[in-house]
Queue: 2 jobs
Job 1
Amino acid sequence: MQILNPEFLQTLFLTFKLAFITTFLLFFIAVALAYALVYTNFRFKSVVQVIVSMPLVLPPSVLGFYFLMAFSPANFFGRFLDETFGIKLVFSFEGLVIASIIFSLPFMVSPIQSAFSSVPKNLIEVSYTLGKSKFITLLRVIIPSSKVGIFTGCVLAFAHTIGEFGVVMMIGGHKKGETLVASIAIYDELEALNYTLAHQYAFVLFALSFIILLSLFFVNKKFTSF
């Protein structure tokens, strides 16, 4: 059975590994960004908001192209990382993680930002009145009151990372066992006319997307029904 094919299982493992690491790291970045955008005023705040939202409208190939140019050892930043830290991001798993974090940024930040905006101000003021710091208020008041938005952001970022194609193709290529993820594997198997294996990859992603969205629907329904 091809479903027990080690290469098939390895590609799925790499796909989920990328999605889990991206979602985990993105959570901390998104919470910090959402907090800054909702509760602080600073110069160029609108510019930061636009930059966070850019991946929503940019073609993935455009973002992938600029990642490729920035991380390439032939250019300044890539050469600096290579010569100073020995880090090579082009066609590597680490490069995939960084590219996925940036490309999935709005899918995590937007729901959390919206949830933070909905937290009643009197709860936050009571916390400050009781002498709690901004950080403790974030941990004990804002985040617990925003759990649905945070869950939604995590689910969307996870699902988006699994299904991403353009950025992943350009920055990671398709090195088996290193950067080949399921969305790229479908394309490779179609080119090789191996429709059976392409269907297996496609079905796994289809079923997973359905389950993720269904769970998101039920969670939102449960918390909004109170």
Job 2
Amino acid sequence: MKKIYWRPRSVSRTALVLIGVISVIGLVMVERLKVFGDRPFYQEKTIAAQMAEDAMEKIRAQRVLVGPPIDSATDIAQSGLLGLPNSVVTSVHGEISAKQTSINPNFAGAVVEMLKNAGVQRGDVVALGVSGSFPALNACTYAAIETLGLEPVVIASASASEWGANVPDLLWIDMERVLFDAGIFKTRSIAASLGGFDDNGGGLSEEGKKVVREAIKENGLRLLETPSFTESVTDRIDIYREAARGRPITCYINVGGGTVSVGTSVGKKLFSPGLNRRPPGLLGDIDGVMPRMINQGVPCIHLINIITLAELYGLPIAPASMPEVGVGDVFRGYDYDKKKVIALLALILASLYGFIRSDIGFRLLRAPAAGKKRGSGHPEPMV
């Protein structure tokens, strides 16, 4: 005759302890047996970083040609990408440690990862708002975009904060043209504003505004100069949409702290450094290109708070020499062994099923559980 087993209402303490022990041992093994290897998109990241390094070497050569001489006391990597403490085209305050940290071609790898995580595909249109504050980071972003085969639409703010691209004869829009002419990048801005407060040259002297306007003209760019902040935002959005020719903009990238791009100093702080998929909780009716884009469902990459970004992607803070391409946690590092993680989860689920949803566990514990009080011990045959 077939035996029918009853199963107690509660799970035995022995079973719970056994499941707990299995889980803890498994967790320790998974943590201690991480594997060292390439991170996702390793090849694309390396190609982008190499392209960014080529761009930085070209900018350094141009800086040596144009002057003033590189100051090794501040530009500790002697990159030529660190600007001056002040000049007529300096718009706002800047942190030198952030500028020094940004001079690293491996940030291109970080931007590749952000773009991939944003879901972009080859041929997608991406919109960029760049300032002259972080020329090295601009170069890394261009390198990442071109490596992934995206179609960028770039609008620049031509002035720069302290220590940025603020050499009057070598603004970012000049560097960009040099890199284009050298065949390193195919990407160039299609329009440029004065930058500074309200994107209308606030913070610049009349002489500084004149220098920036002339640079925009010499580089053949469309000058964006509107009477109000809101009109400036609308102008930029219209230019992006027009250049996209009806195709969707799949990602917006802001480099630096351009007020129109980020939505004033408030928007700049509300967005997280790196990839933002949803509007910040306190964004409210703050206006700006990035707030409008993300409110329309466009993922936004916010390249600001450079030291935080460097820590997030395992890159050095203010390196004393130009970092070697492909070095940093963003390229290679220790990760969980997926096979071990899957095996542990399967073992835990099997244990839960065996001890809670079926009588298999009770059968296994039958001998030690013999004699326990009814209702909490092993199953017994009813017939």
